[in-house]
Write a structure and sequence with these properties.
The complex is a heterodimer of chains A (404) and B (94). Chain A is an alpha/beta fold and 404 residues long. Helix content of chain A is 35%, strand content 19%. The longest helix of chain A is centred in the N-terminal third of the chain and has 17 residues, at 72-88. Chain B is mostly helical and 94 residues long. Classes of the chains: A alpha/beta (404), B mainly alpha (94). The A-B interface holds A 46, 204-206, 210, 221-222, 262-265, 301 and B 36-38, 41, 44-45, 56-57, 60.
Chain lengths: 404, 94
């Protein structure tokens, strides 16, 4: 019999909060974490702003020897996992450890480490790179490090579907717990994007804003890159209730689709299929959804397309539900986006507010939704959806439900 | 517009888009050749490389056809050619 799946722990580190509760406060306050990029020299770039994790000192979280072997992106995964597990209050047994699945999402992975190594050999003419370049770079380093540190020997893997990575990761973990294939899951993702070579590649795409991220605003000028990580603890609802766990919400549905169209240009139909599949999987009517945490990148390509897809799926109800892009505050964290935004949605459900779309200035008739401009609003969210639509046309959508 | 800049821009578009050079005309719109925004980004990159110029995003967004692209490149090429002179006159003023 399928299990209902509860979210019992959340860990977050990103530009608007180095802890879950700081993140929740920032969402409610509509605090934008976008500022000048300090982690790479972007002088002469078309853009200068990003959403960096501020005040982050690795030595406060890891010993020196660990820092040598763990790239910043995997550090974020481990930090988020620690916080999520502590938050869940789960009591481990040997059996539960083996029945725990870890699924992480990463897009760039440890390319910052790789970039440094390539700089050394190509630019500085060095003859060797750091011997830990490969293990630091691999996209599964986050999942591996979580399994090692928390001593979890069950199934663990990493999904890489660009900006949808961690929504796919959470979706897979959700399905394993629902099916009874795992008794607990750690699912989410992390990213650390701020490296000269990676930023150069983003600059060449001409999709990064020269100022800030203004999703759904007519004067939007593109996306802003962000970094960070988020992890969720998922458990069968019955077990969570039985052990008296704090339950944020349930994950009730996951939908996926491929645009099968273009490597960078999104379609309306692909996201429509993913949203419909998620609703069907959840067994919930479109009219029940109160809030959508949008993909909402702030690019010309995404925002009108996502708006059209929401109209297609929700019909007249699209005019009643609230839709916001928290990327306006924590930036586009690529492989971590789905996880950070699922965490944002769960925390908004817990605390009873709609997170705003920050930096919003001008209404756009092609983005005619209630985007909760600039200020959060008190609201009881019973059902919510969180969208991730990736470059490559790979879409992943989650549906969350607060217990009545 | 200098003939050489025009010819070179057309060469770059033909080469990056794998379009026969003779099919391209100054008044051709990008859509006519099946080009989308990613094709445009590729062309802009190739033009920046070819002419050693930087094409700002805002200017790039205004371009609707090949003629406007040639005009834009010409302006940047001219500005680049004028740079050393401007520096010299600046020094003279001091």
């Amino acid at each position: 019999m399928p299990q209902r799946v509860a979210v019992t722990g959340i860990g977050v580190i990103c530009a608007i909060g180095n802890t879950r509760e700081e993140f929740a406060r920032s969402l409610r306050d509509g605090r934008c974490g976008i500022g000048e990029i300090t982690l790479a020299d972007v002088s002469g770039f078309r853009f200068r702003n990003g959403a960096e994790v501020r005040g982050y000192l690795p030595e406060q979280h890891f010993d020196a020897k660990q820092i040598d072997i763990i790239d910043r992106f995997a550090q974020f995964a481990a930090i988020a996992a620690r916080e999520a597990v502590a938050d869940s209050g789960v009591v481990w047994t040997d059996e539960l450890r083996e029945r725990c699945v870890i699924v992480t999402g990463a897009c760039v992975g440890g390319q910052t480490t790789e970039d440094q190594g390539f700089w050394d050999v190509y630019k500085l003419g060095k003859t060797r790179v750091h011997p830990m370049t490969i293990p630091r770079t691999m996209a599964n380093a986050g999942a591996s490090y979580i399994s090692m540190e928390l001593e979890l020997p069950g199934p663990a893997w990493t999904v890489s579907t660009a900006c949808s990575s961690s929504n796919h990761a959470i979706g897979q973990a959700f399905r394993m717990v629902r099916a009874g294939d795992a008794d607990i899951a750690l699912a989410g993702g992390s990213e650390a994007t701020f490296s000269f070579g990676i930023l150069k590649a983003w600059e060449a795409m001409r999709v990064v804003s020269g100022e800030t991220c203004r999703p759904f605003s007519k004067d939007r000028t593109g996306m802003i890159l962000g970094e960070g990580g988020a992890m969720l603890v998922l458990e069968p609802l019955d077990r969570a209730v039985a052990r008296g766990a704090n339950i944020y919400c349930e994950i009730v549905g996951a939908g996926m689709s491929a645009d099968a169209h273009h490597i960078t240009q999104p379609t309306v139909e692909g996201p429509v299929r993913a949203m419909r599949m998620a609703l069907k999987d959840a067994g919930v009517a479109a009219e029940s959804i109160d809030y959508i945490n949008a993909h909402g990148t702030g690019t010309e390509a995404n925002d009108p397309t996502e708006t059209a897809a929401i109209h297609e799926v929700f019909g007249a109800h699209a005019g009643r539900l609230a839709v916001s892009s928290t990327k306006s505050m924590h930036g586009h964290t690529l492989g971590a986006a789905g996880a950070i935004e699922a965490a944002a949605t769960a925390l908004a459900m817990r605390d009873g507010f709609l997170p705003p779309t920050a930096n919003y200035r001008v209404a756009d008739p092609r983005c005619d939704l209630d985007v909760v401009p600039n200020e959060s609003r008190t609201a009881n969210i019973r059902w919510a959806m969180s969208n991730s639509f990736a470059f490559g046309g790979l879409n992943a959508v989650l549906v969350l439900s607060r217990l009545p | 517009m200098s003939a050489s800049v025009t010819e070179q821009v057309l060469d770059v578009i033909a080469a990056t888009q794998r379009i026969p050079r003779e099919k391209l005309t100054l008044d051709g719109r990008f859509e006519e050749f099946g080009m989308d925004s990613m094709d445009a980004v590729n062309i802009l990159f190739a033009l920046e490389e070819k002419f050693d110029i930087t094409i700002p995003d805002e200017a790039a967004k205004q371009i609707r056809n090949i003629r406007e692209m040639v005009e834009g490149v010409q302006k940047l090429v001219d500005a680049k050619a004028g740079e050393p002179q401007a520096a010299e006159s600046g020094q003279a003023a001091q």
